[in-house]
Amino acid sequence: MIRRIPQARDRGIPDATVARLPLYLRALNGMAERGTATVSSEDLALAAGVNSAKLRKDLSHLGSYGTRGVGYDVQYLIYQISRELGLTQDWAVAIVGVGNLGRALANYGGFASRGFRIAGLLDADPHVVGDRIAGLVVEHTDELESVIRKRGVSIVVIATPATAAQQVCDRVIAAGVTSILNFAPVVLAVPDGVDVRKVDLSIELQILAFHEQRKANGGPIMAEEWPDGVVM
Amino acid sequence: MIRRIPQARDRGIPDATVARLPLYLRALNGMAERGTATVSSEDLALAAGVNSAKLRKDLSHLGSYGTRGVGYDVQYLIYQISRELGLTQDWAVAIVGVGNLGRALANYGGFASRGFRIAGLLDADPHVVGDRIAGLVVEHTDELESVIRKRGVSIVVIATPATAAQQVCDRVIAAGVTSILNFAPVVLAVPDGVDVRKVDLSIELQILAFHEQRKANGGPIMAEEWPDGVVM
DNA sequence: TTGTGTGAACAACTTCACAGCT
DNA sequence: AGCTGTGAAGTTGTTCACACAA
Q1: HSE value, Cβ hemisphere, 13 Å, CA-based, for B142
Q2: CA separation, residue B170 to residues B102, B165, B188 (Å)
Q3: Within 7 Å: CB of B19 and strand D?
Q4: Is the CB of A64 inside 8 Å of chain B's CB atoms?
Q5: CATH topology of B15-85 equal to that of B91-203?
Q6: Higher pLDDT among residues B4 and A168, named by residue
Q7: Looking at the UniProt feature table, which residue ranges are given for the DNA-binding region (chains A, B) (predicted)?
Q8: Could you list the mean pLDDT of each consecutive 10-residue stretch along chain A, which spans 232 residues?
Q9: Is the CB of B49 within 7 Å of strand D?
Q10: Residue B204: closest CA among chain A residues belongs to which residue?
């Protein structure tokens, strides 16, 4: 029996806001390091690359943590955002696929710092298994399920070739994982309740190419773009 | 004097649509390889992981390229999307920063295939300069401006440490580049007219952590989440 | 009959502008 | 006097549902 609070406030934070909280957090951490105690929405927005109205609206979804006429207390806001994002606990992450990308991720510093601990590096290639990377020994993907269960892995990063990604995905989901970060250039099929986030170099480049092409044309429309003759 | 067509159709394609076109393109290429000649919006949407209404609306922004009662011609649609995205020409890309991530990007296959040609690999570390990676010799970042100009680079990928990113960014913009793909965990300051796309592992993990935390709570709200005592 | 293309309804997100707290 | 927090307005994106072409 699941407890439910009927008249509960709609504490659902908009996705767009959640996606920006890490940005604010990073900017705030920089300020904290420099010893700033208090910051206005204007200044924080500038540092995070958004406008101040948006920032205030975003923060208002978390609660009323600012002081009118003054601004936000940097340390306190760091704490509140961290808590909201779930960074006050730490998360065991496994990286599957230890090619160049997997290595880059394993060695990425900002990783361990923010509540994410690499609890496993796995690869299917026997030549890679046994290598020591970022203080961990690479294990064989045969161990995937056991690594996930024994070390309480709740987030899996897929950095395998495209061909292996869906299979890895299926296995980690079967092992109970519901949060996946996918670097392989495929659309993963997952059941409801599983979150997949995707990072795709090729897509980003194509989006840039689209805009670059527009600029090159010297304006949004060129008459020549749609010659009547070209139809099927 | 810039020619403008006053009564021009509003051919501005929504950003959300542009961001999905590469997905459709990838799905279509897969179908083309398997010899599929024609596809319905339903099937293509399934392969791309969106719903069919959205797909039809997206494609309708490009033109009327389907056949009612039949579907879309795979080859023709590949051509039209490619053209819209600007993939029928090829783009010279330079990668700055040749650590693990830079190497991963350089070796990434789907790169060269889709109109993107790596025209330069640059790094500030003399130990790396001279290395041969993916058929290219790594050059020193001193050569950045000359590489961009001589090889017609129009897209720069920044894969440097965070501390170097803004400086590299400023230099490539001064050299005329207006499209940047940034992997460094910083918000780049750029003038109007410059497009920056950002790929940030740490942000993606934090977003996953947020949702993972929600799931763990067994529901959207827990009364205990907001004890009255905890204020500043 | 089938499946596209699209107006219209809906939902999410952003920006404005100002009341109200400090 | 200054800056947050937020209704209201505006914008963008999504989904529905069906007319219409093949």
Answers
A1: 4
A2: 19, 9, 9
A3: no
A4: no
A5: no
A6: A168
A7: 23-62
A8: 36 94 98 98 98 98 97 98 96 97 90 85 98 97 98 98 97 98 97 96 96 75 32 26
A9: no
A10: A197
- A101 marked as part of a ligand binding site: yes
Looking at CATH, the fold of the domain delimited by A15-84 is given as Arc Repressor Mutant, subunit A (1.10.10)
Q: What is the radius of gyration, based on Cα positions, of chain A?
A: 22
- Give A12's contacts in chain B (Cβ within 8 Å): 220
Cβ-contact B81, B18 below 8 angstroms: no
Q: Which residue of A has its CA nearest to B198?
A: A204
Q: CB A86 to CB B212 under 8 A?
A: yes
Total-model pTM: 0.91
What are the domain boundaries of chain A? Answer: 15-84, 91-203
A12 is in an annotated binding site: no
For domain B15-85, is the CATH number 1.10.10.10? yes
Please list every residue in chain B whose beta carbon sits closer than 8 Å to the beta carbon of residue A18.
207, 210
Nucleotide lying nearest to B40, CA to C1' measure:
C3
User: Three-state SS string across B16-32, please?
Assistant: HHHHHHHHHHHHHHHHH
Residues of A in Cβ contact (< 8 Å) with B203: 19, 22-23
Give Cα B17 distance to the centre of its chain: 13
Q: Which residues contact B58 (CB under 8 A, 6 or more apart)?
A: B17, B20, B21, B24
At B225, the pLDDT band (50, 70, 90 cuts) reads: very low
Buried b (16+ CB within 10 A) or exposed e, A108-140: beebeebbbebbbbbbbeeebbeeebeeeebbe
The domain B91-203 belongs to what CATH superfamily? NAD(P)-binding Rossmann-like Domain (3.40.50.720)
DSSP class of residue A34 equals T
Range 115-134 of A in CB contact (< 8 A) with B: 115-116
